[in-house]
Design a protein that fits this description.
single chain, 123 residues, alpha+beta
């Protein structure tokens, strides 16, 4: 079963590149703490992040405001419910963003169509 959100097309790549979503996308396979607007804390390993900041995670623990802790094998955080994402202390933010944008530019080129050759050129 794939946890990757759908819609990874050129528009998604550009959307992530034009915002700080690219920083979260660069942190795939990292353990992050996400605070939801409800006040709950979600801690787990990031599987993928899409252009709308929806985060697919696994090995997740969720701590509710009342202190109750729940565990999930997989969890999907809807981007509009995120209040804050706690970034690792040792993260070089500027370098990570530049590296991620370079990766998306290379991936975006893969989506570009090659011009069709004329019938005379094919022979």
């Amino acid at each position: 079963m794939s946890l990757k959100p759908t819609g990874a097309d050129r528009t998604e790549l550009k959307k992530g590149e034009a915002s700080l979503v690219c920083l979260l996308q660069a942190l795939e396979k990292s353990v992050l703490i996400v605070e939801l607007k409800s006040g709950a804390l979600v801690t787990g390993e990031v599987e993928s992040v899409d252009g709308d900041m929806n985060i697919a995670m696994h090995n997740v623990q969720m701590q509710h405001l009342d202190g109750k802790i729940e565990s999930f094998d997989v969890y999907f955080v809807v981007g509009r419910f995120i209040r804050m994402v706690e970034l690792p202390d040792d993260l070089a933010v500027e370098q990570t963003i530049k590296q991620r944008i370079g990766t998306t530019e290379r991936a975006g080129r893969a989506y570009q169509r090659k011009p069709k050759r004329k019938a005379a050129e094919r022979r």
